[in-house]
Amino acid sequence: MSAPGRVWRNLPAKAKAKVGAVLFGLFLLAAVIGPQVMPYDPSYANPDPSLLMARPSAQHLLGTTQTGQDVLSQLLVGIRLTIELALLVGVIATAAAVLVGVTSAFLGGFWDEFLSLVSNVFLVIPALPLLILLLGYLPQRGQLPTIIVLSVLGWPWGARVVRAQTLMIRNRDFIAAARESGERGWRIIAFDIIPNEVSLIAASFVNTVLYAIGASVALAFVGLTDLNSWSLGTILYWAQGQQALQLGAWWWFVPPGVAVALIGTSLVLLNTGIDELGSPRLRATRGAARIAGRRVWPTDPTPVLAQLTASRGRLGGFLHSFSRGSLLDETTPAGGELR
Amino acid sequence: MPFILRRLAFYAVAAWVAITANFFIPRAMPGNPVQSIVAKYPTLTPDAIKALELMLGGGQQGSLWSQYVTYLGHVFTFNFGTDVAQFPTPVSSLLGQTIPWTLVLVGVSTVIAFLLGTGLGILAGWRHGGWLDRSLPGLMFLQAVPYFFLALVLVDVVGIELHWLPTGTGYDGRTTTPGWNLPFIGSALQHAVLPAFTIVITSIAGWMLQMRNVMITTIGEDYVVAAQAKGLPARRVIYTYAARNALLPQLQGFGLAIGFVVSGALVMEIVFAYPGIGLLLLNAVSSDDFPLMQAIFLVITFTVLLANLIVDMVIVFFDPRVRAREVHR
Q1: Is A93:A150 a contact under the CB 8 Å cutoff?
Q2: Taking the CA atoms of chain A, what radius of gyration do you get in angstroms?
Q3: Which one, of A153, A117, A118, lies nearest residue A132 by Cα?
Q4: Which of B260, B262, B40, B288 is nearest to A153 (CA)?
Q5: Cβ distance A205 to A229 under 8 Å?
Q6: B51 has pLDDT over 80
Q7: Fewest Cβ atoms closer than 10 Å to its Cβ: which of A68, A163, A166, B46?
Q8: A64: β partners
């Protein structure tokens, strides 16, 4: 088997991460080629009266909006804009998080206290109302201000996690060795500390992208974005504003919402995969084993075979494990004198 | 310093940051908010414009420092000025009308989601690899659904197609009057079912996943194995030994997630036209009602900080180590 193939089989460890990666890859593909393959101009309002809020058909696979615009085309452009924004925010905010987290742990003392306080304060202040406040004051609302504002508020969680990890690594022997051999501070950070935090930074990046998608869609839904551009949030904004719901035009508001949910799910799955890669305990075990006709879970005490005579079904066994009887099963010696 | 005092100091700092950001944001942003308000609402009295300048900057109101001190005084007396879109209603009375709706709805459903999710997480972690555990990826899909989108679908299916439950507004204004009477409370409950269901469904998976992960780690601890070896009943090992300890990180996560849940609930209220603070915020945004936006931001922040403080007290109750540290110092 080829090397990349083996990596692919071993790396994601679980089907969850694979499904997540494939799903996200599909959306990434849609984002890249979407604007080239979309059948219509997403803003073109077809004047044909039979195409106003038309159900899905062969010409319009996802139907049309109230003004005769093609929903599929809007969706394809919208996925691109949303993912583009989320990835940019992810890169900027994660870079800031690593910078703050590593600096804070590496410097220690006053700067550590100060930077930790700042990130904790940002964590505890609810983000969305603050985002709304910031964007509300801007005279021009577009992609760039949204990216800046989301990045400014998106780094504290990652910084906290990175700081904790750096504190742990900082005291390891190999860092001490690097210091003794006269390495400079930035070199230790870049070549000794950060490579040991790659999986953590990756998880933090995925989380930030997830946050950026949720927040940008919510902000667009509230109307705090450039409403002339097509993102998943603005499609939902127009669908809500033009009564798609009351008129029963599900093909208009369901696809963008499902797209957001699927992108989100793929990222959560990816993150779970990364988590399980780092912590084998969290990986799904095979569940209960059947020993002498009775289901034994990994958390159960090692069974004494002589007592496993009474065989119980799935539900019966589960309920029984909570009952007083199970206590006697597990503590009484084979003879059962204690009863 | 005792744990609670330390936390109190931290929340004081956080509140101060929020208040100060609220003061400087309108001054730092490009454009003059007061002028755009005056242009939009020409009926404002000179007094009101003066008050706006004090709040949002611009105009001649003395040094920045003296403006800041006056502003702080106003915040501490809950004087948020008069609303510009519904002039001359005070902002604080608009807040007073809407806060109870959001507080009851979001508070109750968040607690339900937390308890339910934690309970299911305990079972999923204990029976690691069981059917509940394997259903988690499906639940993650629900978690990734934006609150407001699930709300859209529920309004369409349950409210419009099936007519099972009322949607829109917080109570039936034609047949009931607000107050402590049975028809009103019944109507309000009926209107709250769908929004509450939305919050519970979308946030439960997060609690469940986190609790399951901590639970799995806790079960591997020696004291849990020891408890099992002693022959304690499974129920006692699960709840008194494993779950009680696994609950501590869960509670800390709860504190941090409150802001997130509230944010989601705000946008969800818009879909249900629920008369809470989220709908008020939307109206404020769409009508450039800056004083109202600022007041809402502060009120939400204070509420989240207060909720965090309550969570900290619960942590003190559950974690004897926190109490012990206080005694020793």
Answers
A1: yes
A2: 27
A3: A153
A4: B260
A5: no
A6: no
A7: B46
A8: A70
What residues does each domain of chain A span?
Answer: 11-285, 289-329
Q: Do A287 and B128 touch (CB under 8 A)?
A: yes
pLDDT at B101 over 90: no
Measured between CB atoms, does A182 come within 8 Å of chain B? no
Q: Is residue B134 scored above 50 in pLDDT?
A: yes
Residues 282-321 of B with CB under 8 A from A: 282, 284-286, 288, 290, 293-294, 296-297, 300-301, 304-305, 308
pLDDT at B160 over 50: yes
CA-closest candidate to residue B104, choices B206, B15, B195: B195
Task: Give the whole-angstrom CA distance, residue B220 versus residue B197.
Answer: 35
pLDDT value of residue A323: 52
Residues in chain B closer than 8 A to A282 (CB atoms): 213, 216-217
Residues of B with CB below 8 A from A246's CB?
160
Question: Residue A254: its chain B contacts at CB < 8 A?
Answer: 153
The answer to whether the beta carbons of residues B229 and B190 sit under 8 Å apart is: no
**Residue B41 token pair:** 């609402």
Q: What are phi and psi of A225, to 5 degrees?
A: -160, 180
Confidence grade of residue A330 (pLDDT, cut at 50, 70, 90): very low
Identify the closest residue of chain B to A213 by CA–CA distance.
B146
Chain A hits for B294, CB-CB cut-off 8 Å, are 133
- B231: CB partners within 8 A, 6+ apart: A327, A330, A331
Express each pLDDT in A48-97 by its tens digit.
777 777 777 777 777 777 777 888 888 888 899 899 999 999 999 999 99
**Structure confidence by residue, pLDDT tens digits, B247-261:** 888 888 887 778 777
Report CB contact under 8 Å: B144, A134: no
From residue B266, give the alpha-carbon distance in Å to each of A219, B105, B151. Answer: 11, 11, 12
As its CATH architecture, domain A11-285 has: Orthogonal Bundle (1.10)
A55: left (phi over 0), alpha (psi -120 to 50) or beta: beta
Confirm if B147 and B202 have CB atoms less than 8 A apart: yes
Residue A176 contacts residue A158 (beta carbons within 8 Å): no
When scoring B218, B267, B301 by the number of chain A Cβ atoms within 10 A, the one with the most, hence best to mutate, is: B267
- pTM, two decimals, is 0.78
Tell me the residues of chain B between 196 and 215 that have a Cβ less than 8 Å away from chain A.
209, 213
Which residue is closest to B294 within chain A, CA to CA? Answer: A133
Whether A307 contacts A329, CB under 8 Å: yes
A249 vs A68: CA distance, rounded Å: 13
- Position A86: which residue type? A
Indicate if ipTM > 0.85: no
Query: Bigger pLDDT: A276 or A240?
Result: A240
Q: Which of A197-211, A274-288, B181-195, B299-313 bottoms out in mean pLDDT, i.e. has the lowest? A: A274-288
Q: How confident is the model over A24-41, as pLDDT tens digits?
A: 999 999 888 877 777 777
Cα angle, residue B209 at apex, residues B205 and B211 outer, rounded to 5°: 115
| DSSP string for B170-215 | SS-TTT--SSS-HHHHHHHHHHHHHHHHHHHHHHHHHHHHHHHHHH
Q: Select from B278, B82, B244 the least CA-distant residue to A221.
A: B278
- A332 burial level (CB within 10 Å; 0-12, 13-18, 19+): middle
